[in-house]
Amino acid sequence: MSKPLRIVFAGTPDFAASSLQALLNSEHEVIAVYTQPDRPAGRGRKLTPSPVKKLALEHDIAVYQPLSLKGDAEQAELAALDADIMVVVAYGLLLPKAVLDTPRLGCINVHGSLLPRWRGAAPIHRAVLAGDKLTGITIMQMDVGLDTGDMLYKVETPINAGDTSGDLHDQLAEQGAEALVTTLGLIRDGKVEPEKQDDSLANYAHKLEKQEGEIDWSRSATEIERQIRGLSPWPVAYCSLDGKTMRIWGAQASDTSSTEAPGAVAEVTKKTLSIACGEGNLLLTNIQLPGGKPLDTAAVLNAKRDLFPVGKQLD
């Protein structure tokens, strides 16, 4: 039987921690972890370790937090670990060619989309925003390009009606962890079959910006619903209610048309709130009033229905 692999793991957020946990549960040996430096978090802006660092320390694994891997000292430190392979999951640092070539079997990446469809920082969100029906996980052999390496293993998952980026993030984190362990077994046994990417099918998944949350009511209800799902749980879609920010956490598109102008309240009942759009209406299901908490729209209307008369304009 082939020997377990000696692995250096590089990752930072919860998505990466799922893969690290799977490795810790596997036959393979995680000999070191690389993660981003501790960052200020919370109201007190206290320096906080990443989810990956916390998990590594719980298992007494050596943790490295360089600001860069471009320096000779950092590269020599990595080489001294004598790893068979480096697993990279949402690490947040670019790996120079010298680093990619250091482990005996190179570096592999757990990517949250079906490559080459979405390359870049926010593949899960961009898939929802674009209205894709399918997403998944790609385990990729890393090269010097941005998510351009050979594909080693893929797992597909549908994007169902109502799925938010947060929902898919959690699903794909689990699927990515399972796919990673499977792929490592194939690599160890010499059974992996690399597949080249078709660059002509690639799109760049730009990093999310807060201003992308602003709703343009002249767009169709279907597009705005995707925007709301794609930007949940961050940065969250929003509009203006009486000059203040109202966040929208949940909504359903409707083919029902309205004579009201886009952005105006088209219909309101004890439990439902419908907003006119450029095409169709949008039924708001979960909203956050200025200064309040996210609530089912029915609960908001029960207390403050007077805020939403028919014809009221949301900017």
UniProtKB/TrEMBL annotation:
Name a GO molecular-function annotation: methionyl-tRNA formyltransferase activity
The UniProt record gives the binding positions of (6S)-5,6,7,8-tetrahydrofolate as S113, L114, L115, P116
Q: Which SUPFAM superfamilies match?
A: FMT C-terminal domain-like, Formyltransferase
* InterPro entries referenced in this protein's UniProt entry, alphabetically: Fmt (IPR005794), Formyl_trans_C (IPR005793), Formyl_trans_C_sf (IPR037022), Formyl_transf_N (IPR002376), Formyl_transf_N_sf (IPR036477), Formyl_transferase-like_C_sf (IPR011034), GART_AS (IPR001555), Met-tRNA-FMT_C (IPR044135)
All copies of the Formyl transferase C-terminal domain together span 207-304
Which Gene3D superfamilies does its entry note? Formyl transferase, C-terminal domain (3.10.25.10), Formyl transferase, N-terminal domain (3.40.50.170)
| Residue ranges constituting the Formyl transferase N-terminal domain according to the UniProt record | 6-183
Q: What is its EC number?
A: 2.1.2.9
This entry carries the following GO cellular component terms, namely: cytosol
Known catalytic reactions: L-methionyl-tRNA(fMet) + (6R)-10-formyltetrahydrofolate = N-formyl-L-methionyl-tRNA(fMet) + (6S)-5,6,7,8-tetrahydrofolate + H(+)
Alphabetical UniProt keywords: Protein biosynthesis, Transferase
Q: Which Pfam families does the record cross-reference, listed alphabetically? A: Formyl_trans_C, Formyl_trans_N
PROSITE patterns found in the cross-reference section: GART (PS00373)
The first-level EC class reads transferase
Record's function text: Attaches a formyl group to the free amino group of methionyl-tRNA(fMet). The formyl group appears to play a dual role in the initiator identity of N-formylmethionyl-tRNA by promoting its recognition by IF2 and preventing the misappropriation of this tRNA by the elongation apparatus.
Give the family per the record: Belongs to the Fmt family.
> What is this protein identified as?
Methionyl-tRNA formyltransferase
